[in-house]
Amino acid sequence: MDSLIETSHLAGLGPDTITISNVNLSLGTGAARVHILKDISLRVGQGETIGLIGPSGSGKSTLLMVMAGLERPDKGEVVVNGTAFNALDEDALARFRGRQVGIVFQSFHLIPTMTALENVAVPLELAGHAGAAERAARELESVGLGHRLHHYPTQLSGGEQQRVALARALAPDPAILVADEPTGNLDETTGRQIVDLLFTKHAERGMTLVLVTHDSGLAHRCDRVVRLRSGRIESESDAHEQADA
Ligand SMILES: Nc1ncnc2c1ncn2[C@@H]1O[C@H](COP(=O)(O)OP(=O)(O)O)[C@@H](O)[C@H]1O
Ligand SMILES: [Mg+2]
How far is the CA of 101 from the centre of ligand 2 (A)? Predict the structure, then answer.
């Protein structure tokens, strides 16, 4: 209970959706082994938006993968929407991810042999959702791609591909959405459209959003900015206060 009291600064945002406690993670073997995340603790309130910034190599992507259950920490605990990842085996963690975690990558990660519709529908089918194709079509329409359902990724622009990836991430109605430099492969105008779409979806659905970005202006559109340096949290600040300062 003590730990709940510590979240009083998030009181207006309700319970935590993501609680990371004393997470340490090393990757690689032998001389190439790197201690990437060092004693990271972070709480993210339900519906909160977090901008995660920091120099290249500071551990942003790795921390996002830990939140998404794609990397397991060596030490520490991750709880998402009330579920402790440590208690889940790989299959259970994959099922949890399929229902509760949406992930958007810089390089889209669409399956090239599948149409836009299939890219969105297949994960829904795998997660056991009824009416996957109809739901996928609705989701693509909601990101402005109703006219591109049967196009393959190579037939789509970068911005359109990222919209498909966003539709895929949002289709299961996840509790959290993590996005790793989602505008990094896009020109400025297209990137801004994707970010606007991301925040529109957040306003509509209220999922918790963690956005990794190099762009501090973009990070400051979030409720809070968390800065990593060399695998540690260097600072956490209210984005709006910091913007005013
Ligand atoms: N699989 C891995 N094996 C060894 N080192 C890794 C691995 N993945 C990432 N790293 C190292 O961990 C550090 C943090 O990486 P990353 O989380 O990708 O940082 P960021 O996203 O902030 O640029 C980097 O120094 C990177 O080289
Ligand atoms: Mg990265």
Answer: 18
In the chain, the number of structural domains is 1
Provide the CATH number for the domain around residue 124: 3.40.50.300
Comparing CA positions, the residue from 116, 118, 105 lying closest to residue 60 is: 105
Nearest residue (CA) to ligand 1, atom 18: 61
In a domain, 233, yes or no: yes
Reading the block at residue 167, the tokens are 């539709």
Residue 132 included in any domain: yes
220-230 average pLDDT score: 96
Bridge partners of 80, per DSSP, are 18, 83
Instruction: Name the residue range of residue 212's domain.
Output: 47-62+89-244
pLDDT of residue 135: 97
Where would I find the beta strands (DSSP E) of 127-231? 176-180, 208-212, 224-229
Q: What is the pTM (predicted TM-score) of this model? A: 0.91
Residue 28 in domain: no
> What are the tokens at 80?
């998402």
Query: pLDDT tens, 148-181?
Result: 999 999 999 999 999 999 999 999 999 999 999 9
181 phi and psi, to 5 degrees? 45, 60
Q: Who contacts 107 (Cβ-Cβ below 8 Å, separation ≥6)?
A: 185
Q: Which two tokens stand for residue 47?
A: 């519906």
Contact indicator for 98, 121 with CB cutoff of 8 Å: no
Whose C-alpha lies nearest to ligand 1, atom 13? 57
Separation of CA 94 and ligand 1 centre (Å): 22
- Sequence-distant (≥ 6) Cβ neighbours of residue 72 within 8 angstroms: 25, 66, 85
Task: Indicate whether 14 belongs to any domain.
Answer: no
Residue nearest atom 8 of ligand 1, based on CA coordinates: 27
Centre of ligand 1 to C-alpha 15, Å, is 31
